[in-house]
Amino acid sequence: MYLEKKYNDFRARIRDFAERVIGPHVARVDETGVYPKELFDAMGKEGYLGMVVPKEYGGTGFEFLEYVIAVEELSRVCGSTGLSVAAHNGLGCSPIVRFGSEAQKKKYLPEVASGKKIASFGLTEPQGGSDAGNTQTTAARVEGGWKITGTKCWITNASFGEVFNLTARSDPKSIGPKGISAFIIERGWKGFSSGRKENKMGLRGSDTAFLHLDEVFCPEENLLGPEGNGFKQFMMTLDTGRIAIGGMAVGLAQGAFDVAARYAKERHAFGQPISTYQAIQWKLADMAVQIEAARHLVYHAARMRDMGLPLVKEAAMAKLFSSEAVRFVTYEAIQVLGGFGYSSRYPVERMYRDMKLCEIGEGTSEIQRIVIAREVLKQTEKLFGGMVTEKLS
Ligand code: COS
Fold it and tell me: Does the Cβ of 239 fall within 6 Å of ligand 1?
């Protein structure tokens, strides 16, 4: 895919970092589920934990496209790293950047952008992931602030995150997406705890756990954005988060392709490299097309974000397509490697397990289809105005 030189240079820099610093740990991280803290520290030093934070608040102020390329390159080497970094930047830091007051930005952004504290996001609850408007966590008004009670689940970086953007129903009479507000909660506040780390199929190094809030007092100044606007803010956060998950999918797919293509050239069968057989060539060609198309959709949505354009449809399309592309690519990569692909001697089986989250997290593929259908139907209305169907007589 054609890209301006500055993006290619940026890619080369982060690829080198991912291969040199993260690469040696990946197999062990997958096996044990333990992610070394020094890797977070190393990423913090490079500025990769403050990519969406403007420079005046201690971040690198990268373009969104650069951020997506970074998530892609980290995921090409290690999906767990890609997801942890995307969740911290896109879901942890970003809502404070977009919706925070000046005082909140000054208080929280420098410490999360440097990686001194990891930031996280809590929307999903046990009784409803896709039905995000059915928030059961409550925020009851008390003197000086709010008392928050409820449970959030599948929260990335929950076990060690220190700053959490959470939604809770602040209007007790409301139902559905209205009457939900967003709050910034800190670990250490009385009544706040995280549950046991989930034992997952893939992305095993990326921390996932429940959060429990038992009458946690949240001061008024930690209401994030206007009261009652939490659902919309979180939907807007997910729109851009979905582009980053698209970047993660492209990265995992590229990682699997690179292994498969190289293996096909080195591996001999029936007296010649398997890359000389059409059966393998067609697989590699189809894989390459899927990756290229996914990357186009993801980068296009990222550029729209950089231009401040509406991108609900483009973000959902990018995530949906790239999530399905990476499923195809990692599946075929295993097939190219045969028995070796099925074994943990090569990383493609890990990538196959890691990629499944792309079809679930930050909105399932089914939710992306709902979002896309709503948007294209709206556009169709604008295009045609009146009826196009013939009147029945
Ligand atoms: N940006 C801005 N506003 C948005 C929005 C978006 N992307 N999506 C919805 N809204 C607004 C709507 O415009 C509506 O506003 P008004 O009441 O002023 O008209 C309000 O939010 C409610 O929206 P809607 O009626 O569409 O809500 P639904 O309950 O029908 O939910 C879906 C819509 C299903 C799309 C939403 O719940 C969703 O995305 N669910 C998946 C959640 C998810 O991704 N979870 C994974 C989290 S992993 S971190």
Answer: yes
